[in-house]
Design goal:
194 residues, alpha/beta, binds flavin mononucleotide
């Protein structure tokens, strides 16, 4: 039985292009994996708190004084038991949503998702495929090169061992007609990729 972890990060709970294409992805995925399990993590509905000094000290072997590791343990377990990831990710102020960054801060953890071995960093999550549905108001070619938006996503996932990552970009959403066309294109691409 396959498991899909779906992570949403748009602040919009309605009218969100990334969530709409995400729903389409999940429907297709369920058709292909009728007995599959889906874990959902909605970072807008249940935001992840910023890291604290105590949490990071506990990450690096310090004695926890309370439940500092609990949330990170839960999030890492969700990603570890999943075969596939779906991340829906708008661009906000040239970067990923801060809620998604806070999520990564809890998941990128020494000796759990990466190791430092003989001077090299090794990602510990293996054999996971990740699909990212990125949305942005502007045109991808005008924005992405300077911001490193896509390369950040590939780098952070690669750092923890997830290197099989496909990014689908629904750009130009500021123009509703263009957005509708892009969504149709991306929905068709997704059908072939799942
Ligand atoms: C706070 C905020 C910041 C944004 N910053 C950018 C940006 O830097 N570049 C861009 O192209 N679009 C930007 N946008 C537009 C969103 O990326 C666009 O509306 C996208 O469709 C949002 O995703 P959603 O439709 O899934 O909610 C921004 C939107 C908001 C609300």
């Amino acid at each position: 039985m396959k498991t899909l972890l779906r992570i949403d990060s748009s602040i919009r709970l309605t009218d969100s292009f990334s969530r709409e294409v995400g729903n389409h992805f999940v429907s297709r995925w369920q058709e292909k994996h009728p007995t599959g399990k889906i874990i959902t993590r909605d970072l807008q509905v249940n935001p992840i708190p910023h890291l604290t000094q105590q949490t990071v000290q506990a990450f690096f072997g310090g004695q926890p004084t309370g439940d500092e590791l609990e949330l990170s343990d839960v999030l890492i377990n969700e990603i570890t038991v999943s075969d596939e990831l779906l991340i829906t990710c708008p661009m906000y102020n040239f970067q990923i949503p801060s809620t998604l960054k806070a999520y990564f801060d809890h998941v990128v953890r020494v000796n759990k998702t990466f190791q430092h071995k003989r001077g090299e960093y090794v990602g510990l999550l293996k054999n996971k495929k990740c699909s990212i549905l990125a949305t942005m108001g502007g045109k991808k070619e005008d924005i992405n090169r300077e911001t490193g938006f896509e390369s950040y996503l590939r780098n952070i996932l690669g750092f923890i061992g997830i290197t099989d990552t496909e990014i689908y970009c629904i750009d130009g959403t500021a123009n509703p007609e263009h957005a509708t066309e892009r969504m149709v294109e991306i929905k068709n691409k997704i059908i072939n990729s799942i």
